[in-house]
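quick one, 200 residues, struct below
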Amino acid sequence: MGMRLKGYLIAGIATAVPLFVTTYILLIIVRLFDDISQPLVVIVLGRSIPGLGVLVTLGTLILLGMFVSVTLGRKTAEYFEGAMLNIPLSRSIYSVAKNVVDTFLFGKKELGKVVMVKLTPDIFAIGFLTGNAPRAAEDAAATTLCSVFVPTAPNPTTGLLLLLPEDHFIPLDMSFDRAMEVIISAGLSRSQDKQPPKEG
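---
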């Protein structure tokens, strides 16, 4: 009886935790969208209406998308983008934000080829080859270096930028999505790994 109850408990946890985490993250996103336009709702209607800010925000984004799809909108967006890129501090922030959006929404720029970084002879970490290292770093090291981003698990938005010689990492036959799935799940996800055939 005790073992059966333990099995039920484990099954319940396995079912509830992914649902809870997904729902929690979605609620954060919905609350963020709602908070963006809720002040406008208060100004127009005189009171706050939970959820209406989400519709206003989505509607505004759709209208903005329609606007930048025509010639006048594209030129206006290009003008503001040029202005942002000409301001020293905003240039760095805007470039990073745009690259992140292009990566996750349009797939224009993947974070980089998936590689396995040699931390020690027997310890490895999953990383992304993002390009060549800055020239100043290569000159200082007197060798060719590559920029490799090694995310932290389970939050891949933080990590380390490593400048490594090519013999310090190994390219992997792994997609960007699969690598992110492994990192976010802290290695627990094996949904796309091929299972070895069972003997007998």
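The first helix runs from residue 2 to 45.
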